[in-house]
């Protein structure tokens, strides 16, 4: 791939160019979000290129789904860490919000 067949990265650039009119039509506040989608797609370009997909748009969609899963995992871990930290503070302060039934 590369000399005769376009690489996945080449195909991704082509897709981004094809969708440029939509980007321009978006409100300015959403354009950075649009750009971030393609940035996230590029984060997994090595794996997508290795898979050598016939349809690079499908590989982009799977890459975006994977990027969202990674972000969800990060946010869940952060939320869990805050919840654990918050409960530890309540225990130290002796805050009894459990309803007084021993739980």
Task: Give the helix/strand class.
Answer: mainly alpha
N to C succession of SSEs: HHHHH
The residue-averaged pLDDT reads: 85
Largest sheet: none
Outline the structure in words:
The protein has 103 residues and is mostly helical. The chain has one domain. It is built from 5 helices and no strands. Helix 3 crosses helix 5. It is flat, with a radius of gyration of 22 Å. The termini are far apart. The C terminus is likely disordered.
Top keywords for this entry?
flat, mainly alpha, single chain, 76% helix, 103 residues, disordered C terminus
Task: Summarize it.
By secondary structure, the chain is mainly alpha-helical.
List the helices and strands and how they pair.
Layout: H1 8-18, H2 20-25, H3 28-43, H4 45-51, H5 56-93
């Amino acid at each position: 791939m590369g000399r005769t067949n376009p690489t996945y990265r080449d195909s991704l650039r082509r897709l981004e160019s094809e969708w440029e009119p939509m980007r321009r039509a978006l409100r300015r506040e959403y354009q950075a979000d649009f750009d971030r989608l393609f940035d996230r797609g590029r984060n997994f370009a090595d794996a997508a290129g290795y898979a050598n997909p016939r349809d690079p748009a499908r590989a982009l969609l799977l890459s975006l789904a994977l990027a969202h899963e990674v972000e969800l995992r990060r946010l869940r871990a952060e939320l869990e860490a805050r919840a654990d930290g918050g409960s530890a503070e309540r225990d130290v302060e002796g805050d009894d919000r459990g309803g007084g039934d021993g739980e």
